[in-house]
Amino acid sequence: QVQLVESGGGLVQAGGSLRLSCVTSGGTFSRYDMGWFRQAPGKEREFVATISWSGGFTYYSDSVKGRFIISRDNAKNTVYLQMNSLKPEDTAVYSCAADRRGWGTPGGNPIYYAYWGQGTQVTVSS
Q1: N or C: which end of the chain has fewer CB within 10 A?
Q2: First vs last C-alpha separation in the chain
Q3: Distance between CA 39 and CA 77 in Å, rounded?
């Protein structure tokens, strides 16, 4: 059974930084394209960023492009999300997800992600 566990969330002031981690177990992490999504209270889930299984392809939503960086370490079965210049509107529960198809050009549609973590809360104060 594939499990994804996020960590690194917390409370930070606007302009600050956080790094989220997502450790995967029970599957073949190095074959999965990985993504980060977020959901704020009362809003729909939103795509944040994705990275191919090799790490050679990344894609970001316009709302985080230039501020967030997604990366991965296949030896540690871990995907990261470095979040810089945080804004109050970044406040949400952040979840990682795995696309087991591993096509290498992942996108932002959540229907293609088969496995999901429980999420970690990120709160940005103004």
Answers
A1: N
A2: 40
A3: 24
